[in-house]
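Repro:
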Amino acid sequence: MYDIVIIGSGLGGLECGVILAKSGRSVLVLERAHHPGGCMQSYKRQGLAFDTGLHYVGGLAEGQSLNKVFRYLGLMDLPWKRLDQEFEHISICGEDFTLEQGYDPFVESLSQRFPMERKALEAYVGMLQHSERMQKMPLNPMADERAFDAELLDEGAYDYLQETFQDQRLINVLSAASMKMELRKESLPLFNFVHGNSGFIESSWRLQGDGSQLVNRLVAQIQASGGKVVCDSDVEELVEEDGQIVKANCANGESYEGKVFITDIHPAQACNLVRNSRRIHKAYLRRINSLENTFGMFTLSLVLKPGLLPYFNYNQYIYSTPDIWSFYDAPEPVRGIMVSCRVPEDGSRYATQVDIMTPMPWKECELWTNTSVGHRGNAYEEMVLRKAEECLALAAQKIPRLSTMIQQQYISTPLTYRDYLNAPQGTAFGLRKDYHHSMMTFLSPMTPVRNLLMTGQNLILHGVQGVTMTSLFTCNRLLDKGQIWNIIKE
C-alpha cells in the first residue's frame, strides 16, 4: 500500500509527487498515456521534438515568484534562456508596441507611448507587484486557496481595464500578450489576468530544448526519493469503502491500494471514477459537471529550412483587429496569433522550429466530435489547412516569406488535445473561472471524500506558475503544519 497515489502525471501531479516523496511519503504516480507529462510532454516527428503546451515561463530570477519553488523541485539548473529585455513584440492593425521585463522598465516604456496614462500604469503595476508577493502565500501554513488576492476573485479583468485606463489602444496592448489565457469579457476574473501576467513581467524564460526536460527531471526527483511513475495505467475506477478511497483499478487489470489519492485530471473525470459514492452527492456532481471549459488552441508547428530565419529571442503577437478580447469569436479568417521561436540547440543563430498559435473555440470542432485522430475526413483536413494558411498570412506581416522557409509542418487542434491528452473539449486552460460566480468556479483541492484530493490547472490558476501554486496548496493539506513553508524557506 502506498501513502500517496496520484492519478495523472501532468505538471501538478508530478510536482505533488516530488514534494510528497521528498517528505518521506511512499508515492505512486499513474499515467494513462505512454509517456508522463500531460500538456508538458513533447512529441517527436522525424527526429525532432515538439512541445504541446510549454513555450515560456515567468518569474525564475533570484528572489522572484517561482525561483525558490523551482529550485526545491530541481528545475532551476535546466538550460533556461532569458528572453530579450523587450520580451513581447505586439502588432495591432499594423501599429507596433513592445513590453519590457521588470516592473519599472515596463511602466517607463509604455509611458513613453502613452504619457497621459503613466499614473494608471503605475497603479496597475503596483497591483501586479502586490499579487507577485501574494503568490508566495501558498508557502505559508496559515494560507488557504482563497486567502490571497480575494478581492480580485470577484472583479472582472475587462471591467478593471476599462475603468483604469482611458486609452483603448493601451488596453489592447496590455491584453495582447495574454493569449496564454482565455480573454473573455463577461467572465475572466481580474485575479487570473493579474496572476497570468505578473510573473512574465518579472522575467521571462525559454528552455533550450523541449519541455520533456522538465518532465524527466520531475520524474527523476520522484524516483530518487523512492517513488514510482507508471505509464500505460489508465485508472478506470477509484473504489470507495466506508467513506474513503481504498484503491485504484486500472484498465490493464492492475489495482493499487493507497492511503491518500490525488487526481491531476479534469474534476468531472475524477468524480466519475468514484462509482456509487456515499460521499460525493448528486448536488456536488451537478455543480462539477455544469462547469464550462476554456477554449482550446490551434497550433501550427513549423520545421524550417536551415539558415533562413534568424532566431528571435522574444514572442510575437500579431492582430488584424483591435478587438483583442473577442477576436476569436469570428469563425474566419484568423485575426490574431502568437509566434514562438524554439531556442537553437546547436548554437546556431538560425531558427529551425517555430510555433504559431491561435485560440480555437470548441464550436469550431463540433462537426468532428465523434471522430478520432487520422479519421476526421476531407472537410476537417481542408479546414485545418485553410486555418494554417491564414496563420501564415498573419505571421508574414512580421516574418516576410515565412511560407517559403517551411520544410515541414504539423497541425494540432482542440480535437488533437482531447484525443491525446484526454482534455475535455481540448481545453487549453482548464475550467473557466467566472468572477460572477467565484465560489462556484474556483475549486478547493478537497473533495467530499476525505482522502481524495485534486490538483492541476482546473482548480485555481492555470499555467506553470498557477499549477505550481495549486500543487503547494494540495500538498499543504497533507503535510505537517508549516512543513512546506520551512522546506521552501530553507
